[in-house]
Amino acid sequence: EDFFASQTQLEKKKIVITAGPTYEKIDPVRFIGNYSSGKMGFALAEACVQQGAEVTLIAGPVSLKTVHPNIKRVDVESAEEMYQAAMAAFPKADAGILCAAVADYRPDVQAAEKIKRETKGEMTLRLVPNKDIAASLGAIKREGQVLVGFALETNDEAAHAEGKLKRKNLDFIVLNSLRDAGAGFRCDTNKITIIDKEGESVAYPLKSKQGVAVDIVNKLATLLK
Ligand code: CTP
Ligand code: CA
């Protein structure tokens, strides 16, 4: 393929990407969050527009900037807000990439005022489950749409990833193992294995998140042809 052909793998394709953490409010000044930086999702957005795609990037609270005119950014805070934005955008899209580290639980009540220390004893937070955005998109996925998920695992990696692939009706899943040095949160590199719904598994070497994004986009392009 020539140079230009290699830059148009996703020409005119509409891609929805979730990225970053979610924050689940406890009270006006406190939240439950996680260490996701959003770097992988933002690198994916860049890699997609480099290939001619139009991206809707649904981002949790991150400190990253987006400049490309073909990246439409939707900033959200909680898992519920991310769910609403993703469900609204996915029906018009050709593909969805679920890269966000969505909180599985949120406090059952968000206190309207700052919670005071008052008593010196223990304090309990009751948590209730958030919606599964990936599974919800998987349930409304149409013929021809492609859905990509991520799995960050510490043990029984392949089995857990394959379970998520099936449960969420994904076309392929990008597995990171926390046992691999240089993979996961707060890192500029990543080491992935792509497992698709045909059961094919490809392990890639350690790369920059930009390099990993290109590998994921190449896999996506083969399914969007
Ligand atoms: N995901 C999502 N919405 C959620 C939870 C997860 O869209 N509420 C997506 C993630 O963005 C990722 C995939 O589902 O693409 C797998 O996320 P993960 O947290 O590994 O899976 P869970 O189903 O939450 O399972 P667990 O955390 O128990 O391993
Ligand atoms: Ca989870």
UniProtKB/TrEMBL annotation:
It comes from the Bacteria. Keywords: Decarboxylase, Flavoprotein, FMN, Ligase, Lyase, Magnesium, Metal-binding, Multifunctional enzyme. Its cofactor is Mg(2+); FMN. It catalyses: (R)-4'-phosphopantothenate + L-cysteine + CTP = N-[(R)-4-phosphopantothenoyl]-L-cysteine + CMP + diphosphate + H(+); N-[(R)-4-phosphopantothenoyl]-L-cysteine + H(+) = (R)-4'-phosphopantetheine + CO2. Pathway: Cofactor biosynthesis; coenzyme A biosynthesis; CoA from (R)-pantothenate: step 3/5; Cofactor biosynthesis; coenzyme A biosynthesis; CoA from (R)-pantothenate: step 2/5. Its EC number is 4.1.1.36, 6.3.2.5. The keyword Magnesium applies. GO terms for cellular component: phosphopantothenoylcysteine decarboxylase complex. One of its GO terms (molecular function) is phosphopantothenate--cysteine ligase activity. CTP binds at residues 104, 114, 150, 164, 168. In the C-terminal section; belongs to the PPC synthetase family. Catalyzes two sequential steps in the biosynthesis of coenzyme A. In the first step cysteine is conjugated to 4'-phosphopantothenate to form 4-phosphopantothenoylcysteine. In the second step the latter compound is decarboxylated to form 4'-phosphopantotheine. Catalyzes two steps in the biosynthesis of coenzyme A. In the first step cysteine is conjugated to 4'-phosphopantothenate to form 4-phosphopantothenoylcysteine, in the latter compound is decarboxylated to form 4'-phosphopantotheine. This is Coenzyme A biosynthesis bifunctional protein CoaBC. The gene is coaBC.
